[in-house]
Amino acid sequence: MNATDGGIAASSPLPLPSDHPLHPRSPGTGRYHGLDVVRATMMLLGVVIHTALVYCEPQIWIYADPDRTESAGLLVLAIHIFRMPAFFVMAGFFGAMLFDRRGPGEFTSHRYDRIVLPLVIGWFVIYPLLAWSISFAFTWQYLPAESRTIGLAYEKMSLNADFAEAGPMHLWFLYYLVYFYLAFATATFLLRRFAGPVAGWLRAGFRCVALGPLRLIRLPILIVATSLLMLTMTEPGIDTAESFWPVWHVIYLYAIYFGVGWLAFGDREIVERLKDWAWIRLGIGGALLICAMGMGVATSLAVDAEEDYGNAMFIANQCLQAITCWVLILGITGVSERLFTRANPAVRYMVDASYWIYLMHLPLTIFIPSLFRGWNVWGIVKMPVMIVLVTVVLLVVYHVAVRGTALGVLLNGRRYPVWPFTRARGPEPAPTE
């Protein structure tokens, strides 16, 4: 179990006082293995995108390897277009599932344990590690090659970490999730308690657009809504949160994706319907992604050069990215649900590990590439090797020091057996644990 779900195995939901039209309770929704994989993949792509930044040509990251490649920048652009929107759709869906099965009180407690505590504790742990990794990388870079050792670099590097100027780093997604959980859980609770008929009308309207007579306009509605918010960005694509001060236009944009996931849980037939034509959607989304990448590069060049047609290209680029993002999300979700129809131990292991890997990967995406700075090989070769190395190190630490410990309880909701140190102990936990 990871940060963004509330239990996803098939079982009867916990009894709650009353039903409500927005999220009617029904037993046996089943485990959404495909959605599990989508959510975990979006988090694991964080390792890819942050490692690739080290190899971008031209340099766009705080630290850069001497062996860079233009393909790294294209990879970063491609992932950035759809990764976080897809993640927030999954977060909304599983958040609604947790709220439905646990109720407001336990939902709040669960999200505090899995989101707020990792955000606060993780920030105070990860920020100094990141600062030290950057310091180590630059110290290692300027040491004479003949006397370069990890010990010498450690002696000469700075161990200062200025918390006063620190931002949320990659943990901004947890910070924004807190806003979304508060907003959508509160709205659902109020509708359930005080405005049942209004909730019924809202759900009927959503179903009419999602599955009913108006389903042909559901994608245009989503594209128009997100395109309008994409036009508020300060640069091509989606702005990155670099401060704890809320970036409201970014929050509003991701709230649409989160809200679609939250509402989709109330009509879970949507997930089944997405399996139809899933491969075609994915193929169209892939083609659009290639076009969006080319458009993104051209738009950035035009905007940076202050060309007269830069504004027009910016508008076209933002709209194209909105279209690409939604088509890809629908395609990826449908294909994943078609492919992952039953439990697979290896896939489940990676799903469980994905939260830990995402939380802790950023310092290693600088530290490990810096160690291999002297390995003179093409950047297009070095980059995937570093991505694998960072992932393997994090997996080893997860297996030995996280999976079967109290830290694993915080992140995954339970202590899992850790082969070869322990054997399986009892059945899987209850579906909302």
Form type: globular
Report low-confidence residues grouped into runs of 5 or more.
1-29, 429-433
Oligomer class:
single chain
Q: How many domain regions? A: 1
> Helicity, in percent?
55-70%
Number of helices: 13
Count the strands?
0
Kindly name the structural category. Answer: mainly alpha
What is the average per-residue confidence, as pLDDT, rounded to a whole number? Answer: 86
Largest sheet geometry: none
User: What is the C-alpha radius of gyration, as a whole number of Å?
Assistant: 22 Å
DSSP strand content? under 5%
Order of helices and strands: HHHHHHHHHHHHH
- Head-to-tail CA distance between termini: 8 Å
Short description:
The chain is an all-alpha fold and 433 residues long.
What does this structure look like?
This protein has 13 helices and no strands. The protein is an all-alpha fold and 433 residues long. It has one domain (33-412). The chain starts with 32 loop residues before the first helix and ends in a 21-residue tail after the last helix. The relative contact order is 0.17.
SSE blueprint and pairings:
Blueprint: H1 33-52, H2 70-142, H3 150-156, H4 172-194, H5 196-210, H6 218-230, H7 248-264, H8 269-273, H9 278-304, H10 310-339, H11 345-371, H12 379-402, H13 406-412
Helix pairs in contact: 1-2, 1-10, 1-11, 1-12, 2-4, 2-7, 2-9, 2-10, 2-11, 4-5, 6-7, 6-10, 9-10, 11-12
